[in-house]
Design goal:
- Chains A, B: This is TetR family transcriptional regulator.
- Chains A, B: InterPro entries: Homeodomain-like_sf, HTH-type_TetR-like_transc_reg, HTH_TetR, MT1864/Rv1816-like_C, Tet_transcr_reg_TetR-rel_C_sf.
- Two copies of one chain form a homodimer.
- Chain A has ten helices and no strands.
- By secondary structure, chain A is an all-alpha fold.
- Chain A has two domains: 56 residues, Arc Repressor Mutant, subunit A; 165 residues, Tetracycline Repressor, domain 2 (Orthogonal Bundle).
- In chain A, helix 4 packs antiparallel against helix 5.
- At the A-B interface, helix 8, helix 9 and helix 10 of A face helix 8, helix 9 and helix 10 of B.
- The structure holds a DNA duplex.
DNA sequence: CCAAGAACGAGAGCAGTGCTCTTGCTTCGG
DNA sequence: CCGAAGCAAGAGCACTGCTCTCGTTCTTGG
């Protein structure tokens, strides 16, 4: 994010943003699969070929949207954690979960973009791993402060222990700067996955006409997950 | 599934199956979004227009694959329940979860087809609700026998109770023929969603380089979910 | 200050897609 | 046996992602 020097770079930044905006409204209206470069260009009054000066391919445009979405949900989680203050581990956990849920329900298509099935041959570019881990870092932060306060119960069983975690998880814990026992990671990952299972079912309409009291259902499950994560209030 | 009368109907059934087979291998190889009617027709040595005699549109072909996938995972779950026999509620639950997981890991693209993000403007046709509920009925069956044995603990709290469940859930419980208290449904739905959260994270590669001991992680989480579902061994 | 060169927009074009329509041919049922 | 229905094939339409070329415009080094 360097300073914009000339008029040309300024124009380029503006056009880039306009393309992303239009693409976002298309994704919002029709879903990611129906995103069309030509339609974006048409709506912006430019030739479709000109768009390739800004994004080398359709997938790159999608990646830009994915990064933005990760940043949005990550920011929502971070703000929820900040606002909840030092209100106890479980309270922080609840606040973050509810913030993520609010964001997901308000932006279903963007949620699908990042937490739905990965697109065809699409393998997440390295640009996305940073923004994607923002929301994981929030979870680490909660768990670390719980650990510091002595209210994090880490499973000492041998089956799921520190040996079972991978290099990316180790690196993320190290870079987070938090004092978090590695043995806590598998449990947190499991809880994390289950949380997004709840969100996916709700966002993708699998609870429609099945469960009406979804707020209560979610709050209850989040409490159970807090217990499962080892947060002892 | 009526009896095939003439040679013509037999040929039609065969061609229909061949189209589905080829489509399945394409989905397996490239994912659902890259499924191309023309490519299927090309591979089968027929004109693309001829394919429309068998499937009115690409979405209908996809729907047929989705129904098959639902049936496959439903059958896997049913067989696991049958084979586990009357071995106790938690054992049955574990067996079914592991069977579903095995199927999901063996058929990632088909899993994405049914439990990933719904395709663009695609709203699930009514053909899919029947096969989709097969696997849910397995869960109901486990819970009902647990209830009969007196080892199902149903939350008596007022927040998530029988009032919060929707018409489809009521109908499914009624049609299942099982004696299952309606108040148990929300908890089961939550546990169900969380199970598929675990599966989705694993199938979609979100645990790659993060958690290595995925078998143990899954088994441990399934046990926690059994507890959360109210299965008291 | 001005010319070389990079960045840019537009258009044509290629190969692919879903889908429709028309044209013949085959098979079935009255 | 003959009309009707089912079927395969081809041409064609509108659309897609993407590439290449050709002028134009802006930036910048000498």
């Amino acid at each position: 994010m360097g300073v914009i020097r000339g008029a040309r770079e300024r124009a380029r930044a503006e056009v880039t943003e306009a393309i992303k905006d239009e693409a976002r409204t298309q994704v919002l209206a029709e879903g990611a699969a129906r995103l069309s470069l030509r339609a974006v260009a048409r709506e912006l009054g430019m030739a479709s070929s000109a768009l390739y000066r800004y994004f080398p391919s359709r997938d790159d445009l999608l990646t830009a949207l994915i990064v933005d979405a990760y940043d949005a949900v990550g920011m929502a989680a971070e703000q929820a954690l900040d606002k909840s203050g030092p209100a106890g581990t479980v309270q922080e956990w609840i606040a973050v979960c509810q913030a993520v849920r609010r964001w997901a329900l308000a932006h279903p298509h963007e949620y699908a973009l990042i937490y739905g099935s990965p697109v065809p041959g699409y393998t997440a570019p390295s640009d996305t791993v940073g923004p994607a881990s923002r929301v994981v870092l929030v979870l680490f932060s909660i768990a670390a402060s719980a650990h510091a306060a002595g209210v994090l119960e880490v499973s000492t069983e041998t089956d799921v222990s520190a040996d079972g975690i991978g290099p990316d998880a180790r690196q993320l814990v190290r870079e987070s700067g938090h004092d978090l026992p590695a043995a806590a990671v598998p449990g947190l990952a499991a809880v994390w996955a289950q949380l997004f299972g709840l969100l996916s079912f709700e966002v993708f309409g699998r609870f429609d006409r099945v469960v009406d009291a979804r707020d209560d259902l979610f709050d209850r499950a989040v409490l159970d997950l807090a217990h499962q994560a080892g947060f002892r209030p």
